[in-house]
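Technical note accompanying the year-one report. For the benefit of new consortium partners, we illustrate the data format agreed upon in the data management plan: each record pairs a sequence with a structure-token string. No post-processing was applied to the example shown here.
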Amino acid sequence: MSWLKRWIGLIVLVIVGVQLPASAQVPPHTPGSICVTPQFWCWAAFPGRPGMACTCETQSGWVRGVLR
């Protein structure tokens, strides 16, 4: 029975970990200096007001995000 509880616990941790937004991992920063996308974040090339649109460069191209 304890193996079943461990498996359920592991499954719950994986599901929660997958659904955490990228902003949960953002370091301390000046407001408007980080661009947060659905999957990750990057330092903003041009800081601005939080909530403004921004982009992060990836190997596959540019990804839209929001300044935080």
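Partners are asked to follow this layout when depositing records. The two ends are 45 Å apart (CA to CA).
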